[in-house]
Amino acid sequence: MNAKNALKLSTAILALAMSANASADFVGAYDTANWTISNPGGGAVDLSAAPGSITLTSGNAGIAGDTLFTIAAVNAATVSFDWSYVTNDLWGESGTDAFGYVLNGAFTSLIDPNQDFTVSTQSGSTTFSVNAGDVFGFNANTFDGLYGSSVTTVSAFNVAAVPVPGAVWLFGSVMGMFGVALGKRGSRG
Asked: What CA–CA distance (Å, rounded) separates 16 from 164?
């Protein structure tokens, strides 16, 4: 393999290794049509603003429980998103209507349940890691299903795949061939 071809091959492999699958917003493998809605808490998931954002509303029908929007991870990845939360609870109490993400059934609340009752909005950005096959998503939980629901908009959703270690190894092999090709070329003199 001559140096020119080795350089072309190594560039192509590097580009492949670095172009880990990424999904911005709810598109491609993470299109909203591929997600599952589970709603024992009597809430709702509004997909009308997708692919840019989705909105989860916790239940308010006297039923405690979760409103879940979940999907299985296609590959190992970093998931990130922005969220904007408002509670419509009678007393502005966010502790009874939590929002957060779920990962393999474990709920991580993102809101401050002890906020001042005069403040009913919260927002933030969140990042977490998933492995291929992990089930993750969003949860609008209601502790009591009474006195008003919470509404959370999820936007800037992004899934960035972790580069495949094998691709890095392959890139190193090609670079080694490139070095050998250069050595042979230099020895010709």
From this structure: 10
Q: CA-to-CA distance for 29 and 154, rounded, in angstroms?
A: 17
Which amino acid does the sequence have at 115?
Answer: Q
Quick one: which of 47, 35, 30, 41 has its CA closest to 98?
A: 41
Tens-digit pLDDT profile for the chain (189 aa)? 565 555 454 444 444 444 445 557 899 999 999 999 999 888 999 999 999 999 999 998 888 889 999 999 999 999 999 999 998 876 656 567 889 999 999 999 998 877 656 567 889 999 999 999 999 999 998 887 778 888 999 999 999 988 766 555 555 555 555 555 555 555 555
What is the chain's alpha carbon radius of gyration, rounded to the nearest angstrom?
A: 23
Q: What are phi and psi of 129, to 5 degrees?
A: -105, 150
Question: How distant, in Å, are the alpha carbons of 59, 71, 99, 113, 141 from that of 93?
Answer: 15, 29, 13, 7, 13
The helix/strand/coil state of 132 is coil
d(CA 61, CA 144): 9
Q: Is the peptide bond before 40 cis (omega within 30 degrees of 0)?
A: no
